[in-house]
Amino acid sequence: FLSHLLAGTVTQNVMEEGRDQIRIADEYESISDYVVTILKLTIKLRKENLSISEENREELLSLHDKVTEYLELVNEGVRTNRLNVVSKARTQGDAITHLMKEYRSNHLERVGTKMTSPMESLAITDILNAYRRIKDHALNIAEVVSGVK
To answer: Is the domain 2-146 a CATH 3.40.50 member?
Structure first.
């Protein structure tokens, strides 16, 4: 529908808004793909009768909460068309990236002491990366809303 609309005779503003909406929809779709990845990894661990260590679980839940807050910030920016959402999103996004790297280091330290199984280790690394990618796609949305991209 939008591609037909954009191919027609419309104003530049309508065309740009259409492109922005397509870009935002694509970014949300990518976020949902990473949410599915996290869910599949969790299910796989359960099927293998593996559990995530308490330390890893606490860190993953902490990162989950931070990414959830981040998505709420970006979603509110989309709902209200808040042009300044990108500055706060960048600051919070940098903090999430730092936290993810810290948790990845902690996890790799635990792997070095053989406190986790190879399957758990791979799943945790993939989950950490998925949360970072969710943050990246949400930042892209904030940039579109703010007119940066």
So the answer is: no
